[in-house]
Amino acid sequence: MIPRSQILDILRHYNESDIKIGTICSHTALQIFHGARREGIPSVGIILPENKPYYESFNKALPETFIEVENYKEILNENIQKKLISENVLIIPHGSFVEYVGAENILEKFRVPMFGNRLTLFWEGDRRRQRRWLDEAGVSAPKIYERPEDIDKLVIVKLHGAKGGKGYFKASNPREFYEKFDQLRINNVISEINEVFIEEYIAGVRYYPHFFLSLLEKKNIPDLEEGRLELLGIDRRLEVIDEVYRGLPMIIEEYIDYTVTGNTPAVVREKYILELLKIAGRIASSARKLFYPGLIGPFCLETIYNPKRGFTVFEVSARIVAGTNLYPDGSPYSTFYFDEPMSMGRRIAREIKNAVKLNSLSKIVY
Ligand code: AMP
Prior knowledge:
four-stranded parallel beta sheet, 11 helices, 3 domains, Dna Ligase, domain 1, Rossmann fold, binds adenosine monophosphate, five-stranded antiparallel beta sheet
């Protein structure tokens, strides 16, 4: 793993009066470029040539420059890394960036300074490790089943590295588990039992609150050790299974699919906001203990609210999530912190601008 000291050494040579924001043209890139423009920071889009005309068509979300690559893994090449470094680029790692380049490649080979703490890639990338983080925070999370034989209630079975919930299935007992597992094995989707993660199925309403943690600002809620926590929006992911009722009275098999296809805005009852802030604050504090300096900037909690159990957190995404694309002009919550339209992309650019002003860029980069 590239040590933080090495990245900060590279950052020390950056010309702080010419910082740029860079990312791969996918996921939340339009919002990131748009936010950077609003904050007056130039941006760099790493792009496949065939996608360029389409990204160029968004005149208000256009990066100042493009770097063309045939394949996104090319950004690991020495010449591209050198170019990004010589241009004083800070990379914003969104979901597709991590997906295309690979968490391990980023940790081991990518020397370009990134906004945020790259150790989060290690902690969120493995479901068991991530669970340790949630347990340490003392927040409610679904029970994990180490062995299929132990299944004693409804569980959701997740495939490792599955893209957006594809291939997940439910089971109520070991027999049902093995029937479905064997079918996936026959279809060559999986081969080993350790490729699945078995988790208690939580009934309730899903909410995905988006947070931003600023280490440059004063602590604003008691549950935090340091920093200011902002709730900048909430979404719900639209998954194929959400439409399962359309096949009624029959359940059409094809609808039993958790693939995320889009997002829709949501707000929660005001009293639940307090609960979400407490949970996020505790998760941020435990991150700080487990992988100092912990969370920096954007993160999202994947939660299910059940009136009897309260919020259960089933996953943390420690970076900008696609659900923030709903709010390029701010959300019903960002308006309680900022007088201007504040998207997550813009909030990131604002933080970078503030860090430069305070001579504290090293606090928000790894
Ligand atoms: P994930 O890959 O963990 O983000 O899960 C994908 C989708 O599966 C979620 O958006 C939910 O619809 C569903 N899901 C995940 N975990 C659970 C759970 N423990 N209980 C019920 N549904 C879940």
